[in-house]
Design brief:
The complex is a heterodimer of chains A (352) and B (419). With 352 residues, chain A is mainly α. Chain A has 2 domains: 191 residues, Transcription Elongation Factor S-II, Chain A; 134 residues, no CATH class. Chain A has 15 helices and 4 strands. Chain A has a 4-stranded antiparallel sheet with strand order 1-2-4-3. In chain A, helix 2 packs across helix 3, helix 4 runs antiparallel to helix 7 and helix 11 packs antiparallel against helix 12. The radius of gyration of chain A is 22 Å and the shape is globular. In chain B, strand 7 and strand 8 form a beta hairpin. Among the domains of chain B are: 35 residues; 97 residues, Helicase, Ruva Protein, domain 3 (Orthogonal Bundle). Helices cover 34% and strands 19% of the residues of chain B. The longest helix of chain B has 21 residues. By secondary structure, chain B is an alpha+beta fold. The two termini of chain B are 18 Å apart. The chains are: A mainly alpha (352), B alpha+beta (419). Chains A and B meet through helix 6 and strand 3 of A and helix 5 and helix 6 of B.
Chain lengths: 352, 419
């Protein structure tokens, strides 16, 4: 229960205790609040909250709904996504070390998926999942191996390894958490929570400022990015998964406009989903420093159209055939470049 | 030629004849149409005769109410939404999408058949250039996109469509594990088949999930790396199929086996395999089939290298994919023809295929909506066609007496006039 706050057992337990947010001012609940705050700080900092075995399991369980309440009260879209990702990653780590029957139990009870162990174990494909449940999550992964046609599908069941099932469940749980933190919390919060909320808000904007300073210094004017690149860049900041082509486009574009590969690596590793993470090698490969030594240029507009990355069929751009040209065009137009930078970041970080 | 469009006395007479026939049909039985399940949550749409307007966003509470509306208005074509809505009468964004049946459309349009070059024609409405076969996107003479197509449908087209539908059924039943009770197959009344899947669990699938199902059925995005061809160099043991119970693994293996069992040097050369290798394959056929089915390591077959194997595998896949219209399946707001209703381009009905009877199904018999009658028509030009057990035509510049169903087909197709 302490590990998996999304289970029915955990929420029943929390309900059973019958605490309300109003009780949180009492000093004996401070450990819960501390842990709730810590979960959010972890989410903002590293994008992965840790399971604290050392803590009283009650604290671990109860701190989850409290942290959800805090995230909802703050209502920051960036934080919501980061929190969902961070909690889901924590669970991914825990699930990986569970035995098959526990995994099947959690998938079928908490996520209500049709999941089973394969009768004859000993093969690499240990698990079976109903194709409908599979399709709820898998299409958001971009690797070819997740495409339904590249799986074994028999009698409505998709064959999976344990690692793959855990990955699917993590994504399913992340979606669940995103829904949980979505509705805005409009309650008068007790003082102890208000204080923490303030701290979190401050840390968040401070963190955003650091990101702003760290990211793409001087050289790249985000406000002048063509719409397709802006969307890719914002998706990256928001921790959304980006397709291979998308990552290649973004990386080669950033390199082309003068951002160093170290900075790009920091950007990717700092923000993207761990499994989708682009490695230094990949960036340097694209930069032409490694591997084939070919320096890649970003794809042309027509290629971007083919891959569905072009926004509104180019109607927002000038009559150009390449995103770099559009970027330069926008830079020239941009007396307002400075304001655009600010706006670009605000947008990237999900503010209206 | 039969492609001119003009409003004159004969066209008015034609429309009157078609409308009268359609009305007779819809009046003859209260089960003329088959209303979809959850009828009140569906949107209905109708195409009118004459001005060809599309009336949408209609809703009905029962089959009787729907039939009364059809009797009163006599549309040329009747459609309903695959989707379920909270309020089907509102604009699309406000309807409140609740889910949609999974629909597949197998149309001869999407299947390359040899007969099209013979019976399909087109005319450019701008420069009057004409041609045979499927219409080009643009006229090669003047570049205009205003092209009128005249598509005929022959037994070969319909057989080709049926084969695709059978392949799709195989995938739906074996791979996706759908039960036969959830699937209803229909002949569209023109050039193909519609496969409707009504299942609670499938209703909520979004467009992306449906696209995955389409890709699966059409073999799109199939990466041989996941089917044993990890690396051409690591060719020692490329096929894992013996260990796999089904899905595309089984299908590819089965297809290879079937093809190689009967392949000739010519048919192998046709798929791009060199003559020397083709001869080798035919000579060692039994050994290859044994290796394929029992032992695995395919490099055991001398002279047959990874490239040739890949060609064989690709061909095997190509033979077994189901060619469907991907747009229909992925469009979760799609309107589809109402079962039992008449097709405005043929006067034939959308006829249901009994479970398990697809292979033996005769579309040109089951879809005939009228028996008997004798109508005098002038036929400008028509290929030979069959309705039920009777064969008609070919006609050219002829006045003839035809049973009502045949006359209706000629007139609906715009190939002749009522006299």
């Amino acid at each position: 229960m302490a590990k998996y706050p999304f289970t029915r057992e955990a929420s029943q337990y929390v309900e059973g205790i019958g605490l309300s947010l109003g009780d949180m001012d009492k000093p004996e609940f401070a450990p819960i609040l501390n842990r709730a705050e810590e979960r959010i700080f972890e989410a903002i900092k590293s994008g992965e909250s840790k399971f604290r075995e050392d803590l009283d399991y009650e604290v671990e369980i109860l701190s989850f709904p409290v942290s959800v309440a805090l995230v909802r009260a703050l209502g920051d879209p960036f934080l919501k996504r980061r929190f969902a990702l961070s909690e889901a990653r924590r669970i991914q780590g825990l699930l990986s070390s569970e035995g098959p029957s526990k995994i099947v139990y959690l998938a079928s009870t908490a996520l209500k998926w049709k999941v089973n162990m394969k009768a004859d174990l000993g093969r690499s494909m240990e698990f079976l999942i109903g194709f409908v449940d599979y399709l709820k999550v898998a299409p958001s992964f971009h690797d070819e191996k997740w495409k339904l046609i590249n799986r074994i599908v028999v009698e409505g069941l998709v064959h999976l390894t344990k690692e793959e099932l855990v990955r699917l469940m993590t994504e399913g749980i992340r979606h669940r958490f995103e829904k949980i933190v979505e509705p805005k919390l409009d309650l008068e919060l007790p003082k102890s929570l208000r204080e923490r909320l303030e701290r979190i808000g401050e840390f968040l904007s401070q963190r955003k400022r650091i990101l702003k300073a760290e990211e793409l210094p001087k050289v790249a004017i985000i406000g002048s990015f063509p719409p397709c690149l802006k969307v890719l860049y914002e998706s990256l900041l928001a921790g959304k998964s980006i397709s291979h082509v998308g990552r290649f486009t973004l990386t080669s574009f950033l390199l082309a406009v003068g951002v160093g590969s170290d900075e790009i690596v920091r950007l990717f590793t700092g923000l993207a989903d761990a499994d989708e993470r682009i490695t230094l090698y990949q960036v340097e490969h694209i930069a032409g420093r490694r591997g084939s030594r070919t320096k890649y240029t970003p794809p042309s507009c027509s290629t971007l159209k083919t891959h569905g990355l072009c926004i509104e069929n180019g109607s927002l751009c000038g009559k150009v055939r390449h995103p770099i040209i559009e970027y330069r065009r926008r830079l020239r137009l941009g007396q307002k470049a400075k304001e655009a930078v600010a706006e670009g970041f605000e947008k990237a970080q999900g503010k209206p | 030629m039969g492609l001119r469009e003009k409003v004159d006395i004969s066209s008015l007479k034609n429309i009157a004849f078609i409308k009268e026939s359609f009305l007779d049909y819809y009046r003859a039985s209260k089960n003329a149409i088959r209303a979809p399940s959850d009828i009140s949550k569906r949107e209905f749409g109708f195409q009118t005769f004459g001005d060809r307007l599309m009336v949408r966003h209609r809703s009905f509470k029962s089959q009787e109410e729907l039939l009364r509306f059809i009797q009163a208005t006599v549309p040329s074509d009747c459609y309903y939404s695959a989707a379920y809505y909270e309020d089907p009468t509102l604009e699309m964004e406000e309807k409140g999408w609740l889910g949609a049946d999974l629909i597949f459309d197998v149309d001869a349009d999407h299947i390359p058949t040899r007969c099209k070059a013979i019976h399909d024609r087109w005319i450019c409405l701008n420069c009057q250039r004409e041609g045979r076969g499927s219409a080009p996107d643009r006229c090669m003479q003047c570049g205009s996109q205003k092209i009128k197509e005249e598509q005929w449908f022959c037994e070969e087209c319909l057989e080709a469509a049926k084969l695709e539908a059978l392949k799709l059924m195989d995938i739906l039943l074996l791979d996706f594990g759908l039960s036969p009770e959830e699937i209803q197959v229909y002949f569209s009344g023109h050039r193909g088949y519609h496969i409707h899947v009504e299942s609670e669990v499938l209703r909520e699938l979004d467009q992306i999930a449906r696209k995955e199902i389409v890709d699966y059925a059409m073999g799109l995005g199939l990466d041989l790396a996941f089917y044993g061809f990890k690396d051409v160099i690591a060719f020692e043991n490329p096929f894992d199929w013996r260990r796999q119970e089904g899905g595309w693994h089984r299908r590819i293996l089965q297809g290879l086996y079937d093809f190689l069992s009967t392949a000739t040097v010519d048919s192998l050369e046709e798929i791009g395999i060199k003559k020397v290798i083709s001869e080798e394959i035919v000579k060692n056929r039994d050994w290859i089939l044994k290796v394929l089915w029992e032992k695995g390591p395919l490099n055991a077959v001398k002279g047959l290298g990874p490239k040739a194997w890949e060609k064989l595998v690709r061909y095997s896949i190509d033979r077994q994919v189901a060619r469907i219209d991907s747009v229909v399946t992925t469009d979760i707001h799609r309107l589809i023809r109402l079962p039992g209703s008449l097709h405005g381009k043929t006067g034939l009905m959308k006829a249901s295929v009994e479970r398990g009877e697809l292979e033996a199904f005769d579309p040109m018999k089951a879809s005939v909506a009228f028996q008997g009658g004798s109508i005098r028509v002038y036929v400008r030009e028509s290929s030979q066609f069959r309705l039920g057990d009777e064969t008609f035509g070919p006609f050219k510049d002829t006045v003839t007496e035809l049973p009502r169903a045949a006359a209706l087909l000629i007139v609906c197709k715009g190939l002749g006039d009522i006299l």
